[in-house]
Design goal:
Elements (H helix, E strand, L loop, with lengths): L2 E6 L5 H10 L7 E8 L2 E8 L2 H4 L2 H6 L4 E7 L14 E3 L5 E9 L2 H10 L10 H14 L6 H14 L2 E9 L3 E6 L8 E7 L2 E7 L2 H7 L2 E5 L4 E6 L4 E5 L10 H7 L5 E2 L2 E2 H19 L7 E4 L5 H11 L2 E2 L3 E3 L12 H11 E3 L8 E6 L6 H12 L4 E6 L27 H8 L3 E4 L2 H9 L11 H4 L10 H9 L1 H10 L1
Parallel strand pairs: 16-17, 16-20, 20-21, 21-22
Antiparallel strand pairs: 1-4, 1-10, 2-3, 2-4, 5-6, 6-7, 7-8, 8-12, 9-10, 9-11, 12-13, 14-15, 18-19
Helix pairs in contact: 1-7, 4-5, 5-6, 9-10, 9-14, 11-12, 16-17
Length: 490
């Protein structure tokens, strides 16, 4: 999962891109980058680390131009490090820089096509560089550089690429180009800002990036739609492929997105509140005579759900963990060892809220289970009489192949295990999961009850289909052990 943003402005855009990336930082902490267009030059600066680590006054001064894109990276495909930082750049045709959020599931086939058929070289393991070269090849087939030719190039990308993806690109001599996969699995939102100097446009992974910059959220980019904003600030858009069924990734609402974001016209905050209501109602059905004394969220993502759950149960809601704000999101850290070490650095319990109480801990989801096990033990050590654990999401039993780092089933605690077995492994006195239909209904809201989502990590149903052997390949490339071996080889 990554964060992307693109802006066509009436003045220098690098400062706005920087600010936008800082509020998308939760989507990726491995690397960051910005590319801007100034006349016939593309300026690119990128590197490993947080946005604030990668950019300084000198690098920002070099990023001149009124058209630009930014990216913050969380590694799924590819490896960790500055070589995989985005945006990627090619000088033919015209000069193109591209940043991408998501994951292609036919990367290896495309990589061979790009080399053997398109006569282009790929320098990294990143599927984003493959996507860039596919787009560049399709654009190179056109005789002129104008919005219509960019749309035809996007059509070519959609014909060839398979998976969940949203992309932003700077094309020298044209402006900003953006597109979203035909099922809308990965999010992309369009905004506008009117200034005295003219109208400016932006696209971003989440609406919060537009909010912070003073852009009005116009709408979500439609599945399979292409957006072109020329350097003079003119907006063009076109449906570049027959859209499939809209199926946004439900894990965005469970965990990744900020609660103050809107994705596909759904408030993330309200979706999480409804998750808590549904989970509380399930607890009352299963244990109407429960002995829960207090509901405590595992910060931060579960707070909205935990508060509503406490209201449904009519028990106290308390903040029982203090979070170290200078530690990154544990789930998206590379390597199980690093994730495990980070839990105690990140959270510290307040014993007063646990002592002699039956505590219901609420988390947004349980993926590998290591963090949950440690947090349950923290609650016991802090004096809890009993520790229950509730997950606002169903059991994560299958790999996510569209841009979230759940690559191998063996790394998922729920894979091929019953809830009773998971309960014993985590060490809690009672484990309760959200039911998938309840989660879908909570996110869809009463306004759009028929809306469909990508729930593949819970259901094992992949909307794009999966070629034979694909899961074995991603295990080889993207398991924690594979990543550890790559780091040792550096």
């Amino acid at each position: 999962m990554c964060g992307i943003i693109g802006i066509v402005g009436t003045s220098e855009v690098a400062p706005a891109l920087y600010d936008g990336l800082t509020v998308l930082q939760h989507r990726g902490q491995d690397a960051a980058g910005i590319a801007t267009a100034a006349g016939t030059s593309l300026r690119v600066h990128k590197g490993s680390g947080l946005v604030s680590d990668v950019f300084d006054d000198r690098s920002m001064q070099l990023l001149q131009g009124r058209v630009g894109i930014g990216h913050c990276r969380y590694p799924t495909a590819g490896s960790e490090g500055s070589d995989e930082a985005q945006p990627f750049y090619v000088n033919s045709p015209f000069g193109i820089a591209l940043a991408h959020n998501g994951n292609l599931i036919n990367t290896e086939a495309l990589r061979r096509e790009v080399f053997e058929q398109d006569r282009r070289n790929i320098n990294t393991q990143s599927d984003s560089e493959v996507l860039l070269n596919v787009f560049a090849h399709e654009l190179d087939r056109e005789r002129a550089l104008e919005p219509e030719t960019a749309f035809r190039a996007i059509e070519g990308v959609h014909r060839r690429a398979k998976g969940g993806y949203a992309a932003v690109a700077v094309v020298l001599g044209l402006g900003l180009v953006a597109f979203r996969d035909p099922n809308g699995i990965r999010p992309l939102v369009l905004g506008r800002r009117v200034t005295e100097a003219g109208t400016e446009y932006a696209v971003a992974s989440e609406s919060v990036a537009l909010d912070i910059l003073g852009f009005e959220r116009l709408r979500d980019v439609a599945p399979g739609e292409g957006i072109v904003v020329t350097a003079d600030g003119t907006l063009h858009h076109r449906q570049c492929v027959e859209p499939g069924e809209l199926a946004p990734c439900i894990f965005e609402f469970v965990y990744f997105a900020r609660p103050d974001s809107m994705i596909d016209n759904i408030s993330v905050h309200k979706a999480r509140m409804r998750m808590g209501v549904a989970l509380g109602e399930k607890i009352l059905r299963e244990r109407p005579d429960h002995d829960i004394d207090v509901v405590i969220p595992i910060p931060d993502t579960s707070r909205d759900s935990a508060l509503e759950l406490a209201h449904v149960l009519d028990v106290k809601y308390r903040e029982g963990f203090i979070k170290n704000r200078y530690i990154g999101r544990t789930f998206i850290m590379p390597g199980q060892g690093e994730r495990a070490k980070s839990v105690k650095r990140k959270l510290n319990p307040i014993p007063l809220e646990f002592r002699n109480r039956v505590v219901l801990l609420v988390d947004d989801s349980i993926v590998r289970g290591t963090t949950s096990r440690q947090i349950v033990q923290m609650a016991r050590d802090a004096g809890a009489r009993k520790v229950y654990l509730a997950s606002a999401a169903p059991p994560v039993r299958y790999p996510n192949i569209y841009g979230i780092d759940m690559p191998t089933p063996e790394e998922l605690i729920a894979h091929e295990r019953s809830e009773a077995e998971i309960e014993r492994m985590i060490g809690c006195d009672w484990l309760v999961y959200q039911d998938l239909p309840d989660l879908e209904a909570a996110v869809a809201s009463p306004k759009s009850p028929e809306m469909r989502f990508d729930t593949s990590c819970f259901s094992g149903e992949y909307i794009t289909g999966v070629e034979p052997g694909y899961f074995e390949e991603i295990k080889r490339l993207r398991s924690d052990e594979a990543k550890r071996q790559r780091r040792l080889a550096l």
